[in-house]
Amino acid sequence: MLFFNIKNKVKLRKEKNGTVMFDIENEKVYTLNPTAEKIINKIKEGKSAEEIIKDLKEEYQDPENKIEEDVMNFINNLREAGILIDDKK
To answer: What domain of life is recorded for the organism (predicted)?
Structure first.
């Protein structure tokens, strides 16, 4: 199973138009759509990538089987940006 942690220097703030993620170390700001916010919250809860994918498949219809690919792409983008670090649970 793949587990991740959000770096300490990354802060989340709920705004009226959605959630904003601040990477203080790299001075970058990201605006999260509702699905990205759910993924981040599930990571904060300690869920693995597999558990996140399962949860989202239960919540959303996925006729084209794209949820797994989309979640893994999002996670990999966050890892490449230095926002997520691997957690060896």
So the answer is: Archaea
Total domains in the chain come to: 1
Domain, as residue range, for 27: 3-87
pTM (2 decimals)?
Answer: 0.88
Q: How does DSSP assign the chain, residue by residue?
A: --EEEE-TTEEEEEETTEEEEEETTTTEEEEEPHHHHHHHHHHHTT--HHHHHHHHHHHS--TT--HHHHHHHHHHHHHHTTSEEEE--
CATH code at position 18 = 3.90.930
| Rounded Cα distance, 25 and 39, in Å | 22
Cβ contact 89:47 at 8 Å: no
17-26 pLDDT tens trace:
889 999 999 8
